[in-house]
Amino acid sequence: DAGYPGAALLGDAVCGIATARITSKDFLFWFRSHTAKEVKWGGAKHHPEDKDDSGRMHPRSSFNAFLEVVKSRSLPWEIPEINAIHSIQLIMRDSFRDMEESGSKELACGQQNDTETEGINEISSVAYEMVRLIETGTAPVFGVDTAGIINGWNAKVAELTGLQADHAIGKSLADEVVHEDSQEVYKNLIGRALQGEEDKNVELKLRNFEPHRKNAVVYIVVNACTSRDYANDIIGVCFVGQDITSEKVVLDKFIRLQGDYRAIIQSLSPLIPPIFASDENICCSEWNAAMEKLTGYSRNEVIGKILAGEIFGGLCQLKGQDSMTRFMIMLYQGISGRDAEKFPFSFFDRKGKFVEVYIVANRRTAADGNIIGCFCFLQVIVPAMQEATEEHKQEDKELFTKLKHLVYMRQEMKNPLNGIRFTHKLLETTAISENQKQFLETSDACERQITAIIEDIDFRSDDEGSMELSMEEFVLGNVLDAVVSQVMILLKERNLQLFHETPKEIKALSLYGDRIRLQLVLSDFLLNMVHHAPSPDGWVEIKISPGLKLLRDGNEFLRLQFRMTHPGKGLPSTLIQEMLESGNSWTTQEGLGLNMSRKLLNRMNGHVQYVREHNKCYFLIDLEIKTKGRQKASLLEQH
């Protein structure tokens, strides 16, 4: 098509060409056949009956059409091939130049031609191997021409940036690859390289082109090498680098932490306490701004000095040797890894003012975990704080005295209770009537309730939900008798009536649980109802309603509902609030009793609520309790 005579005779044998100019008279040519020569037909043999019709094209015919389209075209030259050709070109130019300088301008004989050909082949092989090593090397290597356009991009830099070579070639390194933070550094680097000045160990930030890491950057340290042609003219710059991304990230974190540390240590904020640090030799290694303000001595005056003796005891005088000894013990405890408790410490500042502080020592550790000293934190004791501390000490002393009295009362109450218990045992062995026996059982139940209160005098276990229940079999009627007996005297004093007609089948229920604590809870709720019922001519009513039976984990449980009612306005709202509070905000003895009874009830799978209606109020207590043996279902269903 270009008009070269005889070109058509070459046919499909030569469709691609690459040339390399060695001298004005010497050129190297590489030829490549057209694409069709490279394609192998994989279909069946042509059959005469396989012909194209008007509606479709036969595969054989479509393949023929493809051959027509690609005829006279070869495969494109790959980048590694072009690099190899360029390397051979440079090597042969240097070889011919050496030959010219030595005066060897005549053509050698056939044997000499063969030797030179072998040398050229060897040089070509070495050049190809060098290109391959660069392409597959473990160091990032890339190059640009004089316009800053990328013309070399090896596999390592492609791996680091996520930008493959076929996409990188032809891009502007400055505008499209180098991060904006390194623009000035890069421009200065390439400007000097194009002038022949090669810089080393220059840090660059490159963009990351991976889809999930577009905001990330790649840190590399590069050496700039100028690329020259056969005439020794600079034609570009090659960069050989080292990836330092991971080291840079760690270093940046360290710098940020160091900055935060400095900001805290040197801050004069009242929230930052006076702080000083000791190394393993009890020498001062840190002295913050608050410490400077407290003592009057600057950081430069104390750093490196011995804390016990030169600083405290020297610059800052102490009251006596005892203070020095305690201070040294505290420092050695911190350095040995034992965090010292807060203890009072006092000294005289630069102006002779007496300063009282609390001091705490905590160990300092290196990155490997080894102890390298301790940090000491000071809390200045102001007069108000000292006064509050003395008040707390006095309160603690009074509380300890009350606690001793309480322990004494607890022990002394056990003695008469043991006498009552012994009397009960004697009466049980005598001839008594059924009524007397019932009275004795009620009295015994009340005695056991008092014992349980004494044993549970520390209610912290109940607050923490860890109190253990004493499970036993009991009859509901016995619990009700003991509960009612505790309010009878108060009912007569206040001239109140009690209604508690409970069916016999309900009273005869055999249950399994903590009888004494259930008795304690019910009696406490009932006593509060009697206390706040209108008097005289008032009343209090107790009603028990059985509910559904449940089967859980192979055991039978019964739901019981206790309703304790009285007319009038009811209990004060503050008292009900104290009962429902989860903390320790109660202020009255009644509030404390109701609060603890509610918590005990919760431990026994029950809950309580207080309901106010138009002309009456009542406690509604729901309890789910395990039954012992099978009850008469028909009796329960009737109720």
Helix count, DSSP H or I runs of 4 or more residues: 22
Spatial gap, N to C terminus: 113 Å
CATH architecture of the largest domain: 2-Layer Sandwich
The major β-sheet equals: 7 strands, mixed
Strand content: 15-25%
How do the strands and helices of this protein lay out in sequence?
Blueprint: H1 7-10, E1 16-21, E2 27-32, H2 59-70, H3 79-101, H4 110-136, E3 141-145, E4 150-153, H5 155-161, H6 165-168, H7 173-177, H8 183-194, E5 202-207, E6 217-228, E7 234-243, H9 245-265, E8 275-279, E9 284-287, H10 289-295, H11 299-302, H12 321-335, E10 343-348, E11 354-365, E12 371-380, H13 383-428, H14 434-455, H15 460-463, E13 472-475, H16 476-485, H17 488-493, E14 496-499, H18 504-507, E15 510-513, H19 515-531, E16 538-552, E17 555-567, H20 573-580, H21 589-603, E18 606-612, E19 616-627, H22 633-638
Helix pairs in contact: 3-4, 13-14, 14-16, 14-19, 16-19, 19-21, 20-21
How would you describe the overall organization of this protein?
With 639 residues, the protein is of the alpha+beta class. It has four domains: 7-40 and 61-105 and 114-129, no CATH class; 137-251, PAS domain (Beta-Lactamase); 266-381, PAS domain (Beta-Lactamase), CATH 3.30.450.20; 433-638, Histidine kinase-like ATPase, C-terminal domain (Heat Shock Protein 90), CATH 3.30.565.10. It is 44% helix and 23% strand. The strands form four sheets. Strands 13, 14, 15, 16, 17, 18 and 19 form a seven-stranded mixed β-sheet that branches. A five-stranded antiparallel β-sheet has the order 4-3-7-6-5. A hairpin with a 2-residue loop joins strand 16 (538-552) and strand 17 (555-567). Helix 19 (515-531) packs antiparallel against helix 21 (589-603).
